[in-house]
Each structure stands twice: as C-alpha cells, then as structure tokens.
Amino acid sequence: MPPATTIDETKQLVVEGGDAKVFFKALLRHMGLGGIQIQNFGGTNELPAFLKALRDTSGFREKVLSVGIVRDAEANSDSAFQSARGAARGAGWDVPRQPMMSAGEVPRVTILILPGAGRPGMLEDLLLEAVDSDPVMRCIDEYFRCVAQSTEAPPTPMSKARVHAFLASRQRPHLRVGDAAEAGYWRLDSPAYDHVRDFLQGL
After folding, report:
1. CB 98 within 8 Å of CB 131
2. Total structural domains in the chain?
3. Domain-embedded: residue 30
C-alpha cells in the first residue's frame, strides 16, 4: 500500500493506482481545477487500510473538508461501490447511498466508480470510449479479430489490451497509460469524461 503523503489541500482525491493518479492530474490541469490533492491507494484490497491511514495523517482532521474516492467497477459496479462504501465507513466517515452523491460534512465523502453509469469495467474502458472515433480504432478492431481467430487464449481484460494497442499507434508508443494523458492521447475534452468532470467539480 502506498503511504499517505502530507496533507496539502482541503480536498483529497483517492484513486486506484499510479496510472489513475497521473491521469487525474492531467484531467484536473486540463479543467483548470486546483485545490485537489491526489492520493494513490494502490489496489482495491488496500483501500480500507489506506483510508484509515489517510484519516490519521497529520493535518487531516484539521484541514480536510472533502474526500473523493475513485475505483474501478471490475466485474460488478454495485459490488465495487459497496466495497468502497464499506472502506469509507471503516474510516469512521458518513457514506453516500449512491455513486456521485455526497454524504457527511467534515469530511464530505463522494464515490465514483469507473467507467460509470453502473457499467462493469475500469478506467481503460473510459479511455477507449473517449477515443472511439479515432480512425485507428478500426485497425485495432481488425487486429483483435485476427487475434481471436489465431489463439485459444486471447488477452484479458480486453480493455487493457486495446489500450496498449492504441498507444502502440501513437508517436510515443512507450508511454504508460497515465503518461499518455499528459501527452494528450486520451482526448481530455471528450464528452466521455463529463460525469468525471462533474464529480471533480463537486468535491
């Protein structure tokens, strides 16, 4: 579990993994939205312990007004939400009844499950949605049709494989998913992120 860092901002955004941290940093910069500190909680099983550690970090109780929690839905969005909700409750906070809703006062807690709208999946599914109109996606579709016909064990999860295939088509194909956001590859102005922008603005 990555350690919680010092508390620098009144709004804390807790995200799943290093790539998500860099992605959200790029998105916040693109939005011109400041005053939000991003924390990487690691993997999903580490969230409960991380939130308790964050709560106990020096300056948290005196300074933090709101906490936003972002995690992937994986196979089941509702299950992911209930898991995140349980982790927040374990830290002693009031918890929202639904994603994108807030609960409590200090801190106010809001949970976002990606890709959103109750769908299964992860951050990578949202990124692919944002670049769906890129002409190279037709090439990627054809590539994975060929892969499906040529192997008995296609890649899984497919969204991660498709993201890497998309990045392989860019000028700097070595970039990680988060760094690709900094490079502008994920079309940060896409309507696919509208609900994410709403979430961030509401923190």
Report:
1. no
2. 2
3. yes
